[in-house]
Amino acid sequence: MRLAGRVFRCGRYWAIEVPILDVVTQGHSKKDAFDMISDAIESLVNKKGFKIEVFPGKNSYFEVGVSEVAVLIAFLLRRQRIKHGLTLLDVMKRLGAKSHNTYARYEQGKSVPTIEKFDKLLYAISADKDFVLSESQME
Q1: 31-43 per-position pLDDT tens digit
Q2: How many structural domains are present in the chain?
Q3: 26 in any annotated domain
Q4: Dihedral class, residue 70 (left if φ above 0, else alpha if ψ from -120 to 50, else beta)
Q5: Maximum mean pLDDT: which of 92-96, 99-103, 135-139
Q6: Residue 23 belongs to some domain of the structure
Q7: What DSSP state is assigned to residue 39?
């Protein structure tokens, strides 16, 4: 699983972001910016052995990926929930679940949702947005 990002020149620096994770940083060079985004995401996930791989693309496009999909999905759900100012209880109510543990298991990486469930989880967090899956632009 990979997530799209954008890197671009901003004055003397290279700004870099992975919008769906709400992670932004910068570097002195494009390569430095790639290193910084990896470090930022790895630091925020804070899980021993978790590594981000950057896949540079054309122009400003790049992707980040991991082999531990459950950890990446857990981080994405947590970041989106926090971005929207929701508690676990809020999301549980939006899902119509009886226990917040049902949703919490996904945020902890203990369960990996099916694509249908992932869609429902994202909708519960941010009903005003839709998320688009697309093929990689990488060659």
Answers
A1: 999 999 999 999 9
A2: 2
A3: yes
A4: alpha
A5: 92-96
A6: yes
A7: H
